[in-house]
Amino acid sequence: MTNILLSNDIMQYINMASKITRADILDCMVVGDRLIFIVKKGYLGIAIGNKAKNLEKLRNLFKKNIKFVESDPDKEKFVRNLCKPYKINNIILEGSGDSTVAKIEASTSDKSKLIGKGGRNIDIIRKLANRHHSIKDVQIK
Questions:
Q1: Distance CA 5, CA 42 (A)
Q2: Are 8-70 and 75-140 equal in CATH topology?
Q3: What are the structural domain ranges in the chain?
Q4: Fold of 8-70
Q5: CATH 3.40.50.720 corresponds to the domain 75-140
Q6: With left for phi above 0 and alpha for psi between -120 and 50, is residue 85 left, alpha or beta?
Q7: Which residues is 29 bridged to in the sheet?
Q8: Cβ pair 106, 138 in contact under 8 A
Q9: Max CA distance (Å), the chain
Q10: 70-103 tens-digit pLDDT
């Protein structure tokens, strides 16, 4: 994992979300009307909460859509987690170190959802993959 600089606003989001969820939150990204929290491996269920109560509390508190992504030391598993809830058939990692490229094979029906309107979703996936595992690019096949 690379060194991540967090702004004061991001730190406040992480602190408030950690208090509510009691989960170990590693990172947060604000993208328009969405907050994406990266939680420590094994804490996803705790973060979401029983019957998604924590999700609902955070939505009401921040007035934004909330998404939790489980961190993973394995690059492929982390990229797969970033792509949830969409169906991924295969992920191929090419290259090594800072020149790694992740190529995602997705079902036809999920490709457009994975890319998102104006490439919004794939941009978020690229930024987080680069931020946590120094993956240079993420491509949809």
A1: 24
A2: yes
A3: 8-70, 75-140
A4: GMP Synthetase; Chain A, domain 3 (3.30.300)
A5: no
A6: alpha
A7: 36
A8: no
A9: 42
A10: 999 999 999 999 999 999 999 999 988 778 999 9
